[in-house]
Design goal:
Blueprint: E1 4-8, H1 12-24, E2 28-32, H2 35-44, E3 49-53, H3 61-70, E4 79-83, H4 88-96, E5 101-104, H5 109-123, E6 132-134, E7 137-140, E8 145-148, E9 151-153, H6 157-168, E10 173-174, H7 176-184, H8 193-206, E11 215-218, E12 222-225
Parallel strand pairs: 1-2, 1-3, 3-4, 4-5
Antiparallel strand pairs: 6-7, 7-8, 8-9, 10-12, 11-12
Helix pairs in contact: 6-7, 6-8
Bound molecules: calcium ion.
Length: 229
């Protein structure tokens, strides 16, 4: 899955440049010129990462970052601050609000993409094309292939995304609602039971090599990918 990146930047020329570079870097992009507009965009789709300008009209980037980090629905979204200021104190203030990184304007597109990649790898690994492998189970996002003990597996698109998400977030329990948000997208209105159906399909695909044991049901909580089974 390409990462969905929300650009919050009030200067049209810079917003355009960012969007162009991000699209060329293989990301999907949405844009807003103010924090208020960004809120509206996020009502439809939660981004995988936010590029947030420090100096915005109205609610400042810093203030908006603080709000996002204090809201349970948005606090896990990584934020990279864009700042025209290079002062050490500002950088520290930005990072203290929970921003993951900052980029100082003017920036080089290559540096920006590299920083985004580093943050995504750390915070949203399911959006990268890195191969993930656990105990003989191997998933390659670039070629969309999954194998178990070197046997190719046929997975449906939803099972593939589900497995990719779980494999990149091992040893953590996710509720059905969280999995729906992460794998199906917050905009999709499907029942929690849908998750169970796809988990069942995924397990049956993994059954032959015994890798189904890696996907554990945690009673009353949800599901967990665990290599300690
Ligand atoms: Ca600005």
């Amino acid at each position: 899955m390409p990462a969905m990146i929300l650009i919050v930047e009030d200067e049209p020329a810079i917003q355009e440049l960012l969007a162009l570079n991000l699209t060329q870097g293989g990301h999907a992009v949405s844009r807003a010129g103010t924090a208020e507009a960004a809120r509206m965009v996020m009502r439809d789709t939660l981004p995988d990462l936010i590029l947030l300008d420090w100096m915005l009209p109205g609610v400042s980037g810093l203030e908006f970052a603080r709000k996002l980090k204090s809201d349970t629905a948005t606090r896990d979204i990584p934020i990279i601050m864009l700042t025209a200021r290079g002062e050490e104190e500002d950088k520290i203030r930005g990072l203290e609000t929970g921003a993951d990184d900052y980029i100082t304007k003017p920036f080089s597109p290559r540096e920006m993409l590299a920083r985004i990649k580093a943050v995504l790898r750390r915070r949203a690994p399911q959006t990268t094309e890195d191969v993930v492998e656990w105990g003989g189970l191997r998933l390659d996002p670039a070629s969309h292939r999954v194998s178990a003990d070197n046997n190719a597996l046929e997975l449906g698109p939803t099972e593939f995304r589900l497995l990719h998400f779980l494999m990149t977030h091992p040893e953590r329990v996710y509720s059905r609602t969280q999995l729906l948000d992460q794998v199906w997208g917050s905009q999709v209105f499907v029942e929690d039971r849908t998750v169970d159906v796809h988990i069942r399909r995924l397990r049956s695909a993994l059954e032959k090599t015994g890798h189904d044991r890696l996907i554990q049901t945690v009673r009353g909580a949800g599901y967990r990918f665990s290599t300690q089974a």
